[in-house]
Amino acid sequence: MFADMLDNFMDLFDLDDLPKEPDDGLMSQAGEQEQNSDPVLVDLDGDGIPDMVVQQQGLDLDGDGILETQLVNQAFDLDGDGIIDAQRVSVGVDGDLDGVADLNVDTVAVDLDGDGLADYQQMGMDLDGDGVFERLDQFVDLDGDGVFDMAHTAMDTDGDGRFDAFQMTEDLDGDGVFHGVELAPDDREPQADDQNRPDDQDDQIFDDEADPFYEPEPQAEVEPQPDPGYGAVPNFEPFDPDQADPSKVIGDPESAMENWHWQETGSSCAVASQEFVLEELTGQEFEESDLRDLAEANGWYMPQAGTPMDDVGNILEHMGLDVERSQGNSIDDIAQCLQDGGQVIVAVDSSELWEGVNDDNFGPGMQADHAVQVIGIDYTDPDEPMVILNDPGASNGGGAQVPLDEFMDAWEDSGCYMVEAYA
Amino acid sequence: MQEMQIPSVYQLIRSFNRGEFRRKSIPQELVSGWPAIRRLGKTLCVTIPYYARGRAGDKTILYPLYCSATVPLGNPDMLLDYTVYPHQQGWQDLDWSKPVGSFPHEALAGIGRKEYQALCARLYDYYDEMVRAILQGKPFTAREEMGALFCRLMEPDQYPQYLRIDQRFYRFFCPI
Predict the structure, then answer these.
(1) pLDDT surpassing 50 at residue B139
(2) Domain limits of chain B?
């Protein structure tokens, strides 16, 4: 098996072409253009099966006949399946031949999905040979197409050994142009072209290269910006505590509606709903993007598709909450959960919720396509009780009030499916 | 030999869409598209494609076909195949983060919701006639009528993905 692993590694990283010569100390081999060691197999976990391949190479980059550069190539089989899934390449350049590298570049690439392409890569640069990185670049391939689409750069600009400047950029539209997406605040004056730079004006890989790096403190309150390419604008009225009789309101919608934000992708309603619940039950802030990453890594969420109904609540369980899932519930079951201090997510038919339309336009039996949080029930008007939602799919979904009968119509399409969560 | 008793294709898909596999494994945000009838060995099966839709203001936007499930017509509880297309060779050129079209498409311009639903019901009736003809070993005489209706209802921007799933079926019964 390991022979295959080595072959894969050789093919994947083009090491077949490296000449194999005895290694007598790479940094001391004067008069050679390059000097290579044989690959060495290492059993890191002691199970008798090699899980790392190491190869060293000495290079004479300036052509003076002295091998001033050392390259160490390490390939790892992290999950023990016999396939290389991570590689580390360390390059040290000893320009003054004092035996100490003056420049170090360390690159790590990880293939998370086993397709032979790096999904994550980081490159650290020690520019003064003190063993501390002054710059660290990280790249992520979010969609697995072999092209990195997010990048993060950290720099130590004052040489104190701590990163003090950061920049995050993305190329989510895959056009090869990276855009700044998250900028920590600084004290500089706002620049006219800091934001909303049109895509068609980009003509270089990092179109925010001209922007300076930013001080990371203090943390900014960044409101999620909805993607204008999706989302509904139903005729929701938000819950107004001043118009309600507190004794007739079940739950704490005034508090819970503060957690609402528009879901950050077209398919992340269940993730966003779980984020609302987490924040309400724990009092902590969470980022939807972090929870999406968590759910995707565990197979609970598929980007561009969404979350299977039975996987709604997995994030909450992962975070230590008690979760119960059930079908065939009534509005009284929701009320009971809220009164018991729990939080509720339900599966509904978005067409019925947003438009009051119940049809099979999109496939037989396909009505329940959306997850929302139920944050309260308002019985102030006994003739028209209102269910109060945090609907992440609607632009006005925070504390959205829906008449009980309309809510029931939308909910019944999932067989009144409900996820209860308790701290 | 006694004829196999099967539910209508519409009812079978409805049942599958409300079943355990759908709930456990297919993202709830996906909706089902036009099925393909295919024979796997001696088993007559239905392949149900799924795709994401979304709202952009008052428009319904459609994304590329994302996955499909195949079950025998006589036993919808027996899953024969479940394929997620973004992970398949031959589908890597598609971008599932971007819509490929909107609903309703041009061929449906001006028709109301009830009329559209009636057309869909009629198409499913044709599916049932086709299945009966296959099971009875008789020619399917309504092929042209079904094709004309299918071509009208088929979302044109998703048609190329339907062909990737089952070119023979869709090109024969929906010859756009």
Answers:
(1) yes
(2) 9-109+155-163
Whole-structure pTM over 0.90, yes or no? no
- Measured CA to CA in angstroms, residue A226 lies from A1, A269, A333 at distances of 49, 13, 33
Record: contact B11-A415, CB cut-off 8 A: no
Query: Hey, are the CB atoms on B28 and A308 less than 8 Å from each other?
Result: yes
Does the CB of B169 have a partner CB in chain A at under 8 Å?
no
Specify the range with the lowest mean pLDDT, choosing from A22-26, A47-51, B104-108, B111-115. A22-26
Q: Does A283 touch chain B (CB under 8 A)?
A: no
**Which of B87, B22, B70 is CA-nearest to residue B166?**
B70
Check residue A186 and give its pLDDT: 38
Can you spell out the DSSP letters for A3-19? Answer: HHHHHHHHHHTTGGGS-
Please tell me the distance from the alpha carbon of residue A363 to that of residue B30, in angstroms, as a whole number.
10
d(CA A276, CA A317): 14
Give the span between the Cα atoms of A345 and A419, in whole angstroms: 5
ipTM: 0.88
Chain A neighbors of B23, CB-CB under 8 A: 308-310
Q: Tokens 């019944």 label which residue?
A: A412
Model pLDDT for residues B84-105, shown as the tens digit of each residue: 999 898 899 999 989 999 988 9
Residue B16 CA to residue B20 CA, distance in Å, equals: 8
A198's tokens = 């049109």
What pLDDT digit, counting tens, does each position of B42-86 carry? 899 999 999 998 877 677 899 999 999 999 998 888 999 999 999
Q: What is the pLDDT of residues A58-97, one digit of tens each?
A: 887 777 777 788 888 888 887 777 778 888 888 888 877 7
Query: Chain A neighbours among B 6-65 (CB < 8 Å)?
Result: 10-11, 13-18, 22-33, 48, 52-57, 61, 63
pLDDT at A211: 33
Average pLDDT over residues A108-126: 83
Domain boundaries A237-422, corresponding CATH code: 3.90.70.10
Residue A43 tokens, joined? 């059993």
Contact criterion met (CB < 8 Å) for B13 and A364: yes
Query: Quick check: A266 and B113 CB within 8 A?
Result: no
Domain boundaries, chain A: 2-148, 237-422
The Cα B10–Cα B129 span in angstroms is 12
Query: Distance (Å, rounded) from C-alpha A370 to C-alpha A207?
Result: 37
Chain A residue with minimal CA distance to B9?
Answer: A364
Burial (0-12, 13-18, 19+ Cβ within 10 Å), B81:
exposed
Integer Cα distance of A290 and A296 in angstroms? 10
